[in-house]
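Quick review question:
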């Protein structure tokens, strides 16, 4: 099969096309012929070596965390899927590699593709939708009447998080460029802040939750828009010692992440707030729940551009510009 491999950790490194043996499904795996693969900032961070301390892959390896496609074989223990099923998935860490024509995925990481979505639309959903679900539902337990601030609303996670927070009954604020303001309101945002001309710290106050995805300056400002007891969930870092411990990292890495996150944790404590770092995990059962919301019209995909598979490096370069509104996807023949 054709796949794109990262030959060494390096900022800006190109993926290299390779012919690899077809993967074989294990007893609990489904083998999927990939129809489309979503691109994520996580792919860039891994390529650049930013997450080597806790997401360790030995080059060369195939990148890619999102897919939609067709089941073409199943393992002997698989009970939830059959050959011919249209599915979507975010394969678990350690078994990524969706920038390829085929992949074997544990059945627990797979769900039936929402029938209302195209292959390309479905391929852009798993990672960002799971991130939004795990932040808003699992960690924050967002309830009706709460106030939620979603940074960078026009990004992949932002477009889904706004819709999910609104579905959960929250008042939602977000930041974006002026050209995206109408889209943000269409998705359900109640307060839309132009990050180029407005300071969100001056516009927002007494929020219950911030979903943070930006830099350290935005992180520090975000603490000050929360009410006492409020929660900031960061998907861009810094990771905490609690995260390191939950990931099973050694004591040295726990200490290192403790130093890295010390400023954020100290600020949160001094203001009577809570700080949490989230690295989403694969979960096919949550994808099935999200599929129900998609089919009900509560969540819709927001697509920016679709590239041919042969133009994967161009697609990654486009994601790296930060200008995408919604998801960028590569389609395979």
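Suggested answer, residue by residue:
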């Amino acid at each position: 099969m054709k796949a794109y491999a990262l030959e060494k950790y390096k900022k800006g490194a190109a993926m290299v096309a390779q012919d690899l043996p077809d993967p074989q499904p294990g007893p609990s795996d489904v083998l999927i012929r990939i129809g489309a693969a979503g691109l994520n900032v996580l792919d860039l961070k891994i390529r650049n070596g930013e997450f080597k301390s806790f997401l360790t892959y030995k080059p060369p390896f195939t990148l890619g965390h999102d897919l939609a496609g067709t089941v073409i074989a199943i393992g002997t223990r698989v009970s939830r899927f059959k050959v011919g099923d249209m599915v979507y998935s975010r394969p678990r860490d350690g078994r990524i590699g969706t920038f390829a024509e085929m992949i074997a995925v544990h059945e627990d990481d797979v769900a039936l593709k929402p029938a209302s979505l195209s292959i390309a639309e479905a391929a852009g959903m798993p990672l960002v939708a799971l991130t939004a679900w795990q932040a808003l539902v699992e960690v924050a337990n967002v309830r009706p009447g709460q106030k939620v601030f979603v940074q960078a609303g026009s990004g992949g996670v932002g477009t889904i998080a706004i819709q999910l927070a609104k579905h959960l009954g929250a008042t939602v604020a977000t930041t974006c460029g002026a050209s995206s303001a109408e889209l943000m309101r269409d998705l359900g945002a109640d307060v839309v802040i132009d990050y180029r001309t407005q300071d969100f710290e001056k516009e927002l106050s007494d929020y219950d939750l911030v979903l943070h995805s930006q830099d350290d300056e935005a992180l520090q400002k975000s603490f000050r828009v929360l009410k006492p007891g409020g929660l900031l969930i960061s998907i861009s870092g810094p990771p905490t010692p609690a995260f390191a411990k939950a990931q099973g990292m050694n004591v040295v890495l726990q200490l290192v992440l403790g130093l890295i996150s010390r400023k954020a944790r100290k600020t949160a404590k001094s203001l009577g707030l809570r700080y949490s770092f989230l690295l989403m995990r694969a979960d096919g059962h949550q994808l099935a729940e999200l599929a129900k919301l998609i089919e009900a019209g509560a969540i819709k995909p927001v697509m920016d551009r679709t590239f041919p598979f042969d133009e994967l490096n161009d697609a990654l370069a486009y994601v790296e510009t930060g200008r995408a509104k919604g998801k960028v996807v590569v389609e395979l023949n």
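Why it works: The chain has twelve helices and 16 strands. Residues 152 and 281 are 21 Å apart (CA to CA).
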